[in-house]
Amino acid sequence: MISKHAVTAAAVAATTAVLLASGDANASSIGDFTAKATCDTSTGEARAAITVTDKDPSGTPADITVRIRMAVGTDGETVGTGHIDHPTAAGASTTILVPWLQGYQWNVSVTAGNLVDERLTDLPISPDTPCVPASSHPSGTPTAGPAPRRRRPPP
Predict the structure, then answer these.
(1) Distances in whole angstroms, Cα of residue 70 to Cα of each of 34, 49, 77, 94, 125
(2) How confident is the model at residue 152 (pLDDT cuts 50, 70, 90)?
(3) Could you report the per-residue pLDDT of 12-40, keeping only the tens digit for each?
(4) With CB atoms 3.0 to 4.6 Å apart as the test, which of 16, 23, 39, 92 could cross-link to 87 if both were Cys?
(5) Is 31-119 a CATH 2.60.40 domain?
(6) H/E segment holding residue 128
(7) Strands (E), the chain
(8) Distance between CA 108 and CA 95 in Å, rounded?
(9) What is the pTM of this model?
């Protein structure tokens, strides 16, 4: 006959094994995430495109938050959020458009599995060059300007 203590110990061991196995399903490491910043003018406005890539093989969904990085390194205003539904070991990405700030560094934080608002260690920096939308008029095409002055007929 098995003692009550042995049954309890077996149940605890089985529960622990299940919890450990399920913990792997939500395994995320901040090292699974990378981010880069580029100029984007697809909306007709200068924007910083913060592209975050998640290479978490467990497929744990992730919420991304982009904040302005203050001069002292702390978080400033939240300027954008994104979500990655199904990351893979090959990588899944989301691009978050935020206001263009030339040469700015962005704090990017992740909430996924056991990570809660964890900041990436390698932060993206906007290029230190102007981000200028292409002109809406092709070069050589006249634009509306002041009307030409009319000359008075001679008296």
Answers:
(1) 20, 19, 9, 24, 13
(2) low
(3) 444 433 333 344 445 589 999 999 999 99
(4) 92
(5) yes
(6) none
(7) 33-40, 47-54, 62-69, 75-84, 92-99, 106-112, 115-119
(8) 12
(9) 0.70
